[in-house]
Specification:
Helices cover 81% and strands 0% of the residues. With 122 residues, the protein is mainly alpha-helical. It has one domain. The protein is elongated.
C-alpha cells in the first residue's frame, strides 16, 4: 500500500497523467500511503525482534534503514518546501522542477528498499 500509492503519486510528479491535478491525486493516494506505513512499521519491528542479533550485524539491513530515513527526508522536503507553498498559491500550474527530483529520488529509493528487503532473506 505504501510503495504502490507513493509510486503513483511520484509518476504524476514525473509528468504522467497531467490531466489529473496533483492536489486531487495527493488527497486520494497519500492517505493510502499513510495507512500502509501504519501497517508496515509494527510488522517490521516484529520481524526485527525475531532475529535482532543477526540483523543488527547485517549491512543490508542497515542499508535498508538508511534508505528508509532518506525516503522520509525526501517526503519531508517535498511536503514542507515544495508542495505546501504550491497549495498556498492556489495549486495552479505545475510544481517546481525540484518536485520532479523528489519524485525520481522517491522511486529509486523505494525500489532499493524493496530490493534490500528481499535480500535480507538470503
Amino acid at each position: 500500500m505504501l510503495v504502490g500509492a507513493a509510486f503513483l503519486f511520484d509518476l504524476r510528479l514525473l509528468g504522467f497523467s497531467r490531466n489529473l491535478p496533483v492536489t486531487g491525486l495527493s488527497r486520494h493516494l497519500l492517505p493510502w500511503s499513510q495507512r500502509g506505513l501504519i501497517l508496515i512499521v509494527p510488522s517490521g519491528v516484529l520481524l526485527f525482534i525475531t532475529n535482532a542479533q543477526a540483523l543488527g550485524m547485517d549491512p543490508v539491513f542497515w542499508t535498508k534503514v538508511a534508505l528508509i530515513v532518506l525516503a522520509a527526508l525526501n517526503v519531508f522536503v517535498f511536503h514542507r518546501y515544495l508542495y505546501k507553498p504550491f497549495k498556498r498559491r492556489g495549486a495552479v500550474g505545475e510544481l517546481p522542477g525540484a518536485a520532479l527530483l523528489c519524485g525520481v529520488i522517491s522511486i529509486l529509493v523505494w525500489i532499493a528498499v524493496v530490493a534490500c528487503g528481499r535480500l535480507l532473506a538470503y
